[in-house]
Amino acid sequence: MVWIELFIAGIFETVWATTMKFSHGFTRLGFTIATIVGMTASFVFLARATKTLPLSIAYPIWTGIGAVGSILVGVVLFKDVLSPLTWVFVGFLLIGIVGIKLTTGH
Question: Where are the membrane-spanning stretches (predicted)?
Answer without folding.
Answer: 29-47, 59-78, 84-103
